[in-house]
């Protein structure tokens, strides 16, 4: 989003992004289609309540809702504080507890641009042998996974992984309108073969990730958790990725390391 653009133009862009007509949005938000049209064309300046109402039905992220409010001449209503803020200490502690509780298996927390925030001790299996330049903060986990000098060279099913991650990143970039995510997508796409990666298997529940690690193949599936009732922009944008062993050999490998990774 570019600062200074009128609120109607921004709302129209979000409506197009969601594939809705003015009538669709009007029905969902229980307002007239004429009112939606007037807001989008600038004939009506919406109240803060109307901005938030339309944003809610458009699924606009909290960060962008603040920008819509400012564009309409209103004050932002959703707070954004750094994780170091004392008020977010309980949330930060809860995050770290979740990651520690997942040991001996890897788990990590990332921000909206896939930059690493926290990780548990078992994450070392992904960092082993990675080029030092990719470990300088902020460490981007998408880049780390698909860059030729990251752990991509140790992924035995890299084509499948690219086919899963790149469409996911493209959707996130399109839904958020974040230019940095678009740039990250273009960068990561350039690391692979020409053309689009093969699409993921629609019948697959979870994609296995197979990584060579010191002579052994470790196989994972992963889950992604977000804060559905976040009250702060920073918290809404955090995702927790937890990796589970996909076979008994991988589970045995991590159980054998449990004393070294605990705590």
Structure summarized in a few sentences:
Residues 11-65 form the HTH cro/C1-type domain. The protein has helices at 7-17, 22-29, 33-41, 48-58, 62-71, 89-101, 124-127, 141-146, 158-176, 179-190, 233-236, 248-261, and strands spanning 107-110, 116-119, 209-213, 216-226, 239-245.
Write the layout of secondary structure elements.
Blueprint: H1 7-17, H2 22-29, H3 33-41, H4 48-58, H5 62-71, H6 89-101, E1 107-110, E2 116-119, H7 124-127, H8 141-146, H9 158-176, H10 179-190, E3 209-213, E4 216-226, H11 233-236, E5 239-245, H12 248-261
Antiparallel strand pairs: 1-2, 1-5, 3-4, 4-5
Helix pairs in contact: 1-3, 2-3, 9-10
Q: What would your notes on this structure say?
A:
By secondary structure, this protein is of the alpha+beta class. It has 2 domains: 65 residues, lambda repressor-like DNA-binding domains (434 Repressor (Amino-terminal Domain), Orthogonal Bundle); 176 residues, Beta-Lactamase (2-Layer Sandwich). Helix content is 46%, strand content 12%. Helix 2 packs across helix 3. GO terms for molecular function: DNA binding. This is Transcriptional regulator.
């Amino acid at each position: 989003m570019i600062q200074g653009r009128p609120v109607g133009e921004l709302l129209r862009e979000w409506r197009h992004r969601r594939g809705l007509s003015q009538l669709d949005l009007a029905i969902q938000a229980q307002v007239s289609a004429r009112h939606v049209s007037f807001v989008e064309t600038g004939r009506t300046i919406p109240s803060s309540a109307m901005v938030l109402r339309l944003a809610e039905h458009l699924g606009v992220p909290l960060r962008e809702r603040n920008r819509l409010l400012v564009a309409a001449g209103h004050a932002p209503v959703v707070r954004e504080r750094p994780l170091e803020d004392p008020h977010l200490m309980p949330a930060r502690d809860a995050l770290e507890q979740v990651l520690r509780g997942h040991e001996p298996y890897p788990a990590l927390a990332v921000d909206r641009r896939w930059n690493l925030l926290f990780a548990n001790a078992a994450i070392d299996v992904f960092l082993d042998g990675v080029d030092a330049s990719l470990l300088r903060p902020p460490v981007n986990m998408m880049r780390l996974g698909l860059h030729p000098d990251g752990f991509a060279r140790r992924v035995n099913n890299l084509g499948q992984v690219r086919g899963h991650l790149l469409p996911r990143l493209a959707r996130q970039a399109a839904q958020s309108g974040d230019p940095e995510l678009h740039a990250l997508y273009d960068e990561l796409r350039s690391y692979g073969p020409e053309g689009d990666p093969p699409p993921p298997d629609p019948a697959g529940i979870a994609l296995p990730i197979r990584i060579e690690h010191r002579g052994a193949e470790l196989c994972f599936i992963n889950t992604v958790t977000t804060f559905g009732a976040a009250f702060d922009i920073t918290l809404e944008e955090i995702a927790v990725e937890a990796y589970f062993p996909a076979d008994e050999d991988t589970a045995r490998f991590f159980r054998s390391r449990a004393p070294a990774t605990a705590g």
